[in-house]
Design a protein that fits this description.
The protein is an alpha/beta fold. It folds into two domains: 119 residues, Rossmann fold (3-Layer(aba) Sandwich); 163 residues, Dihydrodipicolinate Reductase, domain 2. The chain contains ten helices and 14 strands. The longest helix has 18 residues. The N and C termini lie far apart (63 Å).
Amino acid sequence: MKKVRFGIIGFGAFAERAIMPAIRAASNAELTAIQKRSAQAAQQKAHEYGIPFSFDSVEALVASPEVDAVFIVSSNARHHAETLAAAAAGKHILVEKPMAVSVRQAMEMSDAVRRAGVKLMVGHMLRFSPLILRMKEIVSSGMIGRITYAQSHFIYDVRNSQRSWVLDQKEAGAGPLFDIGIHCLDTMRFILADDHVTDLRSMMDRDPSTGSVETTNVLSVQFSRGTLGTIYTSYETPYRQGYIEFFGTEGSISAFNFTPSRVEAVLEIKRGERGLVSSVTTERFTVPDLYVLEVERFSESILTGSAPPVPLESSLHNQEILELAVMEAQKKRF
């Protein structure tokens, strides 16, 4: 069976913990190269894990004939330049979320891959979760009626993160909104059939002692079909938690723990009648390694010549929402 040969750009702790194992576990992909800014560190990691090639520059990795596609796992601010370099070298690109730190960068990335004739997909792995797919099915079926409101939160204590750059405005672009809020936003939009946002309000709180980015954000949106939504993200909570809920005219669905891989997740479905809750049912899901599914689906699109499963247009709209949210939060009303 033919496999897509991947090179990882930005082989840090996250790539080592999540992305490398995912590529190796994928049925239609293999890991042939890694890149770190230190040549010695790159060589050491390649030797430790039996990876054939290591590089200390992006340009050298994308020039390698042993690489068909790259997985960009570097800081947000580097996604743009690294995508342009990979596209110019004719490599397909799977890039971690968010796509970039600005709409201008995202548009340039999109233009570059179209000119080069290569594929670009942003890593929204939650779209492959059986829990999220079931929520999407319920919403699209009309089981809980017309969706009037959606809410999601994703919170954790940033002091436990190995990615120190997430607190650096220059490298991250923004705080939890860009880091984890994008998961909530994209998942909400995916369940709502990639509905577009037509209006938004955003508020941010900043702890100067933590870093140069906001540490808490609340984003309120309105979708084109009328659904209202709220997303809350924070770096200042002493535990990690994710939650998502949709309210309809005939019921609601909700789930905690909707973001991790390799967990047991529970979906709660409530139905109403005559102003009261008439039934509450639960469905249980074993969520596999979503990064493996992400790599496999992207590799499949390369091998078959089909479109990547995460539409580029949807990722561009996500970037527009993120940029507008940051601008909105900076407005002074009082």
